[in-house]
Amino acid sequence: MDYKQQVAQTISDVLDGQLTVDDVYAKIEVPKETKMGDYAFPAFALAKTMHKAPQMIAQELVEKIDQDGYEKVEPAGPYINFFLDKKAFGSNVIKTVLSEKEQYGQNEDGKGGQVPIDMSSPNIAKPISMGHLRSTVIGNSLSLIMNKNGYKSVKINHLGDWGTQFGKLITAYKLWGSEEEVKADPINKLLEYYVRFHQEDQEKPELDDIARDWFKKLEDGDEEATELWKWFRSESLKSFKQIYDKLGITFDSYKGEAFYNDKMDEVVSMLEDRNLLKESRGAQVVDLEKYNLNPALIKKTDGATLYITRDLAAAIYRYRTYDFVQSLYVVGAEQINHFKQLKAVLKEMGFDWSDDIHHVPFGLITLNGKKLSTRSGRVVLLDEVLDDAIKLAQTQIDEKNPDLKNADKVAHQVGVGAVIFHDLKNERTNSFDFNLEEVVRFEGETGPYVQYTRARAESILRKAGDASIDSADNVISDPQAWETLKALESFPNVIKKAAAQYEPSVIAKFALHLAKSFNKYYANSKILADDSEKNARLALVQSVSVVLKEALRLLGVEAPEEM
Ligand code: ARG
Q1: Sheet strands side by side (includes 39-42)
Q2: Is the entire prediction scored with pTM above 0.90?
Q3: How far apart are CA 134 and CA 140, in angstroms?
Q4: Does ligand 1 lie within 6 Å of residue 484's CB atom?
Q5: Number of neighbouring beta carbons within 10 Å of residue 518
Q6: What is the pLDDT of residue 165?
Q7: Interior angle at CA 455, CA 452 and CA 457, nearest 5
Q8: What pLDDT, on the 0 to 100 scale, is given for residue 532?
């Protein structure tokens, strides 16, 4: 039951068609304070057409309004304030949540349309850094959110497995590396070679020429170069997968840049056929002046293709493969221009579906105020951060609940969940600083706080014994429960909003709000007292548990039963 919709209907019923229900709906506000009601309609929206003062309009309309189903409807200056019938509202919400369980809030807006999500996409032969965390967890959460809205997401890891860095890596490996070393500790050794290359080429610029030659060999299919590339790729992927396992994140496709090697000729000839390629200092470019963008560089003087050439091939491939309704790219804000160019070139090629491509940018993570970079070797290994977070969770659990069963598993869920939640509670375009102690706290605006609240709800239910809870006719007269009931009722709309804005933080903020309002209620009421509303209170606790768990799931965070 959408109460805002009900209010819109009530108003439009007394308007003689001056505004449609949808118009009214769009104008309805939610007052800041509950004493002003649950919804308010600003009557000045009608002042022009009715030629009357808004105060008067509010008065007159209230007289005509059918108050049945509301606690009261009253004029307040230029507003009409609606107070919902709290008892019916509460009993309705609880009934809906408990009968739909984890399906609560599911909608079919997406009508099964496919949505490829380009996410994580680290570069081979370098470790995943904190910088890649954001794309991974935002992408994963968006996939869950889109599915909850009736879409079918396809999680694509567009691996950076091609490019001049492989020439550098092969050069470094041949100069300083050994097979045994790499086998023993692949990802760190590969990084070491890469970093050393960048240190030494400062003094020995000839290294760059050797690297260029090796990359050329790789592009020409040279056997040794190809074998090394394959080996580096598979070793890197193994270590990436360990991290993804830790995060509990899977992919539907690992087709990275190299996959498009044989698909770029077609792109280039399509561009030629449409007369879009221009020569500029020996290179082939697409002019994008009318979009106010720099020309897109498609082919270099030596014939080498570029990042955007691959992305053009990938976009077309995805369109053909998935017939997508939306195609998302969860990639840092520093690539905003790249995606503008990508869309513009596709548009010039006559592909209307370029409008369905959305870059979902995000800000930087700094670590105690410092920027992270692979070239300098100042990386923060995501793997280590996760392990530290798990350890910190373990310490806190040992303190709070030393007898906890499965403490290891719970520490993992809490530590990893804390890192993910911290990332997602920030609006994605904001940059933020990462400080482990703050992230893993059990109080404040953290993942563990939400998990703890949900586990507490479960523990109340356990204490209540297995008396089965009746989901119907649950009237709660305690006004302290109102905020929690309203939060529960808003969940389906929160889910829609998160998808419309590609914004997991909408879900994270909702989870924090629900947890806070529930804790307040919990602190002020005797849930297990034996009176006529006991079943209703337990039903509310159960509803909160169901919805908090589902909200966490949409973020990719697990909810331990006990902690
Ligand atoms: N590998 C790139 C990086 O780490 C991100 C790739 C994003 N996806 C894409 N289709 N361009 O910066």
Answers
A1: 39-42, 79-84, 70-76
A2: yes
A3: 10
A4: no
A5: 26
A6: 87
A7: 110
A8: 93
pLDDT reported for residue 199? 92
Read off the DSSP letter of residue 38.
S
Q: Which of 430, 451, 422 is nearest to 519 (CA)?
A: 451
Rounded Cα distance between 253 and 231, Å, is 19
pLDDT of residue 418: 97
Q: Are strands 365-367 and 432-434 parallel, antiparallel or unpaired?
A: parallel
Cα gap 6→13, rounded to integer Å: 11
Q: Which residues pair with 394 in a beta bridge?
A: none
For residue 314, report the phi and psi dihedrals to the nearest 5 degrees.
-65, -40
Q: Which amino acid is at 473?
A: D
**Which residue is it, tokens 């299919």?**
221
Beta strands, E only, 237-325: 277-280, 283-286, 296-299
Quote the ligand 1 centre to 422 CA distance (angstroms): 23
pLDDT for 1 equals 62
3-state secondary structure (DSSP) of residue 522? helix
Residue with tokens 């990332």: 423
Residue that the structure tokens 């280590």 belong to? 384
Q: From the CA of 118, how far away is ligand 1's center (Å)? A: 8
Determine phi and psi for 73, rounding to 5 degrees. Answer: -130, 125
Place of tokens 């990508």: 342
Ligand 1 geometric centre to CA of 248 (Å): 21
Dist CA 561 CA 563 (whole Å): 7
Residue 331 Cβ contacting ligand 1 at under 6 Å: yes
Contact indicator for 367, 381 with CB cutoff of 8 Å: no
| 121 pocket-lining for ligand 1 (C-beta < 6 Å) | yes
The pLDDT value given to residue 124: 85
Give the tokens for residue 6.
């009900």
pLDDT, residue 236, reads 87
Residue range 264-293, pLDDT digits in tens: 999 999 999 999 999 999 999 999 999 999
Residue 113 to residue 481: CA distance in whole angstroms: 39
Residue 381 backbone dihedrals phi, psi, to 5 degrees:
-75, 125
Give pLDDT < 70 ranges for the chain: 1, 127, 370-381, 466-467
Q: What is the reported pLDDT for 384?
A: 84
Q: Which tokens in the block code for residue 271? A: 């561009």
Element (H, E) at 341: helix 336-348
CA 311 to centroid of ligand 1, rounded, Å? 9
Which of 422, 424, 431, 450 has the alpha carbon at shortest distance from 563?
Answer: 450
Task: Give pLDDT, residue 50.
Answer: 87
Residue 318 near ligand 1, beta carbon < 6 Å: no
Summarize the chain as % helix, strand, coil (round to 5). 60, 10, 30
Strand partners, 305: 299
